[in-house]
Putative nuclease HARBI1 (Collichthys lucidus), 346 residues
Amino acid sequence: MAIPIAILDCDLLLHGRGHKTLDRFDLDSVSDHFLLTQFGFPREFILYLVELLREALCRRTQRSRAISPEVQVLAALGFYTSGSFQTSMGDTIGISQASMSRCVSNVTRALVEKASQFITFNIDASSREQSFQEFQRVAGFPGVLGVLDCVQVTIKAPNSEDSSYVNKKGFHSVGCQLVCNARGLLLSAETHWPGGLKDTDVLERSAVHKQLQDAEEGWLLGDSRYPLRKWLMTPVDCPESPAEFRYNLAHAATHEIVDRTFRAIQTRFRCLDGAKGYLQYSPERSSSILLACCVLHNASLQSGLDAWTLERTDPLEQPESLEQRPEDRDSQAEELRTQLIVKHFS
């Protein structure tokens, strides 16, 4: 008698009835070492994630042999942290490529839905004062609300003839504008920008730009690719006085936090590391995976894990200085920076 193949689960077809398919996977059956080495996180954090995402993952798996939330989380973490193509990680944990893809999609969507819960940029008086104190302890730079950078994550070329994702280095990417605090916690992560956009254009279109236009006190630190603004302090292009040199040194030591943070994110989530190959997805889905990894970074930091435990030690790329037209210069911002240098670095 013919068996209707359509009703059989793809994992059952691949492995047979004796195989431990992931809908029966038991976290208690594997060691802490196995979880940490294969999925990048300790058991306690994985269990926390399962409970955090359980409702969303159960909503998306209303099937007769639905894969459990525990298994979906493990599958997605395995993909995020290994940098392997989904088929390879699926083989490691014993599920088909189709099931692996569903797990990654489900968990990514669930994490993106949680982004506003874990990535927030508060500039009320209490939050400002805490930020000022934490950043001042780094290198003595006063008034810092956060450190800003825009990074590129390599993706496959979109199917359409869309050159907007070709960045200045000639490869396809999505741009991610990050702001983080002194501990490496992300305050803002906008991951959806085409790689061909200039950092300054991304900033001008971003939510952070709108939020800080009327900031009563404090500023971000940005590198020389950005324009000097009252709410965005940049290095002095050609320092001459000892105070200007001290200002630049403190600026560099403080701004480095955002570079270190993204290097740590790339190292933990190797699917984002261009050296391992590019994300094999559309710009939209790649942006969602990137945001999901940012949410996981903050969630792990808030759970007590070290932000920079896995940081790479690659040399920092020196940014190109922004060429500003005279009419684009902000004289009030220049005066504010001069006062800052005189008061705190002389």
Observations:
- Residues 150 and 245 are 25 Å apart (CA to CA).
- The chain has two domains: 27-114, 119-310+330-345.
- Residues 119-310+330-345 form one domain.
- DSSP finds 13 helices and five strands in the chain.
